[in-house]
Amino acid sequence: MVLTTVSDRTRSIWRSRLGSAFRTGLACSIVGCITLFGPLTLQKMVAFPALSYVTVILIVSEATLGDALRGCWNAIYGTLQGVLPAIFIFWMLGHARFSISTTLFVVIFSTFVVVLPASTHAVAKRIALAQIVILYSVTSVDGVHTGALLHPAHVAVSTAVGAFASVLALLLPFPRLAHYEVRKKCKLFNKNASERLALYVKALCAENNKEGLAHLSQAKILAKTGSSLLQIITLKQESMQWERPQCISPQLYYMKPVDKVQALELPLRGMELALTSSPSFPFRVADQELSNLLLSLKENTSVRSDSSTISETKSQILDKSLQTIFPDKNDLPSLFVLYCITLVQTDVKTDQPVKIDATNNPAPILEESMKVHKQESYPIGISWSDWNDRISCERIMLALKCSLSLGFAVFFGMIFSKENGFWSGLTVAVGMAFEREATFKVANLKAQGTVLGSIYGVLSCFIFQRFLFIRFLSLLPWIVFTSFLRQSRMYAPAGAASAVIGALLILGRKNYGPPSEFAIVRIAEAFIGLACSIIVELLLQPTRASTLSKIRLSECLGKLHECAQSTCLHFSSVSKQILNITELKEKEKKLKNHLSVLLKVMGEAEVEPNFWFRPFSNECYDKLHRSLSKMLEIFTFATHAIEFLVRDSHIPIAVWKEHQERVDRDLDLMRRMVCSSIKCLNELTSIKSLAALDKKIKRRDITLDLELGKLANANGYRGWNVHEDEMEKITGSFLQHSRELIDKIHAFKLEKHLECQIILSLSALGFCMNALMKETREMEKHVKDLIQSENPSTDINLHEIYCKINALRT
After folding, report:
1. Is residue 302 within 8 Å of residue 194, measured between CB atoms?
2. Is residue 562 within 8 Å of 592, Cβ to Cβ?
3. pTM reported for the whole predicted model
């Protein structure tokens, strides 16, 4: 059974959280035993137990053995970045010269150097920054009494103890392996996919709306569970590489687990897309034999966990002879579902290099063409491009922002309390983000977590003030509690980490004075550090997330336009078409990355404070993001269908030459229609505001002929002039020409399963064409809603706005 019931979900969550809490508690206990109850010599060497605890929290939380090994390496690398330069700086400047102002400049410079490289892992950077804060802040306080080598050695040993405890905690009592976690989640995903597949087949065979919608509703719930499983598998993928030499056979890495899961997820999403495209049930199935087959599969459809395939479904479908007469438009959704079922069997591999069948075309293989293409595009080589990416204006601005935040946090923290000033810098260093985040929300979470942890620590010290060991043990329930806080919306990982660190610094150390006084000072220092981070963020990166969301939306539309432009057929040149398919796949990957960035910025904009600004239109952006994601999926299916027709269909060249132009013409009409509309939407979302647009129009004294729309039509605009009838005409023409093509192929008497696969691929391409045109019209409505939400007092006319944009270009 898949984890679908409430009790199963609850047990799974408890096991996961308690397991993480146990590992974290064990690592903290190892550090506590060394720093509180260990030999006196060792306690003196670990002079900064706070750094040890911070290292544990950075490495162990939600970690596997692979994560711990990677974290240990990051701790070593961070120590090289933090400690070694400090020894040289101490030798150059001398300890007596470390005033507060000197500390400010040294911290800013050191932080800039650490943050600038893009390749360094975030954990290594945070450990290095924490070491920088302690190294220079303590030196500023102690002056000449600080050892030139002993002080950096204490910092390095404190970090090493935390890293050692982290690895040991992931090994005892038995190792928590990433490959085991991934394998378990993959099995759960396969079971989840089996249930979803069965529900989709039942929905396809449903006899009425009530039954069909009920199956789709159940499948939607399972799809959310599948998405979370896919996310976990993706997160654990990198950790497996650190464990591979010890415990994994190289054969398991022929194809990455996340690629297998995604290859299974894509057809399931396609089935959902097809089943939700029709307003009512039952669906038409093109062939009665296939209808009977689907009915028999309703209770016998499954995904095998070993190979992620449907055991007999594909062969059964392809062995059935579809009607010789090509299906009409009403059959497309059901045939697309059948096409997706065959994709589950074939295990779509979107990143696998493509070879051309020599019998189909004697052209050179794709790798040769790609090599020439890359040499023409990048004559200097990849190394210069990589270096240019690493050192860019964006990276320099990020490094400057982080260095100023940390430097001023240490500076003002030491002005407030010189002896405790490094706590403000440590708060910033441990939670430093090296990309955009919801600044106000994260600062609020960190502040709340710090206060919660400090109060818990003070209360525990008050209750168990005479019993150091029991006081330390009181950390365990708090660690369990914060492990649940990590997954909550209220505190998230940032707030939970601050809460557990706040308690650890009070209950896991000794000889720091009265706990209540320390808690007050640390809360004040944390506030100083967070305030410095917010102020620097606002000064150096003033663009609001809501404004950035519109910019990212426009970029996504631009990438979508590139995908649409590349969707075409050139059957006369197979090598050129396969190269075009490869480029299209790369553009689809870029669009997917841009959509991920857009979703992240939308989440930031949703939680940022409005102040005197207009509220963020989250609902409009959410609709647009869903529409863009759906179009990306449609392009993916269309690309796969075209790839099969070109590469694996074995259609005689004479037949292709005869019918290629007609089929290509229909596809080109769809492409131009979609491209025209997307280009218009891209330009509409690129304008800052309607008020600014009207000012430019008045300044240039431009008169618009809105009724005739001459300005728009002169520039090739036709997006909102496309009617439902025209879309139906294009789809009908494509199906008619495909029917003629199938008739010709049937005369050559190809293998039955190959002929059926060609019919399914052409049907899938027809479905994708129709779906793209429909979704483009839906996107036009969503863009209009977005502009209307930004201008509530204005009656929005997209045609009129586009005419104004065109007028400014002329």
Report:
1. yes
2. no
3. 0.84
